[in-house]
């Protein structure tokens, strides 16, 4: 199982859209996929046609990541009615707001990781849709992740937010979870021919140069149409939807290339040393580790 968070510290730039697009690509590919809806607005749950039916939500999971609670918080997406496949949602809830502390405890930060260990064998890919802030919820998602995809718009405020996100990821990696990396940035709602957009895209590419991926998604009405109909973009008709779907296929490929490096590094000396604090620890009792761990010192 591999875990990817889709994040930005700025609201409304397209996190949920990108998470749903990647979910659609994974679904079309036959991957067993779980979308974790960490945003109190619950847009990912809505987009995947997952409403209630379950007595529990991710808020219950964060307060008690036990077996029964985790299983009860997961429901099948209505996408399954359009095309067969395996896509589930860990239901979002407005109650997750209670977990969005500016200064979460270490124990809080590991809760989702602990919960995902319970379904480790059930899914190939977990996508986490995070809220637009760097408080407890987003960091809890990041600690459970192998990679983070940053979503940005080609505007000055988004470029600043992407820079902040990158720094926050690096801090978390150094302090707590060495396997964590930014996968890169997807620049969303690009309008071809806009000079301002070209300029900001240049800035973002500079910021994310080197090993990082920079992908682009244009502003397209078809994205909103598919979302409105509660359908995966890969099943939406027309050339425009096919182009959007292709962007997400390529993103998923890039994510999997990067996941391969996680698998390699897990066997490295440094990762083994931190092993109990990384995802290898899933399924183990973490209380004991927290008493003696590097992040606690
Ligand atoms: N490439 C695109 N083309 C057209 N519309 C888009 C595109 N990307 C996002 N949108 C629309 O913009 C709005 C905001 O997108 P979305 O909800 O994905 O952002 P978000 O970052 O998840 O927001 P929040 O911070 O509130 O969680 C939605 O109505 C979505 O349909
Ligand atoms: Mg959202």
In total, the number of domains comes to 1
Q: Which range best describes the helical content: under 10%, 10-25%, 25-40%, 40-55%, 55-70% or over 70%? A: 40-55%
Question: What ligands does this structure carry?
Answer: adenosine-5'-triphosphate, magnesium ion
Report the structural category: alpha/beta
Query: Strand count, sense and closure of the main sheet?
Result: 8 strands, mixed
Instruction: Kindly report how far apart the N and C termini lie.
Output: 30 Å
**Average predicted local confidence, pLDDT:** 87
Oligomer: single chain
The ordered H/E elements are EHEHHHEEHHEHEHEHEHHHH
Strand content: 15-25%
Overall geometry comes to globular
CATH topology: Rossmann fold
**CATH architecture, please?**
3-Layer(aba) Sandwich
The top level CATH class name: Alpha Beta
CATH superfamily: P-loop containing nucleotide triphosphate hydrolases
User: What count of helical segments does DSSP give?
Assistant: 13
Poorly predicted parts:
275-297
Rounded Rg:
18 Å
Q: Please count the beta strands (DSSP E, at least 2 residues each).
A: 8
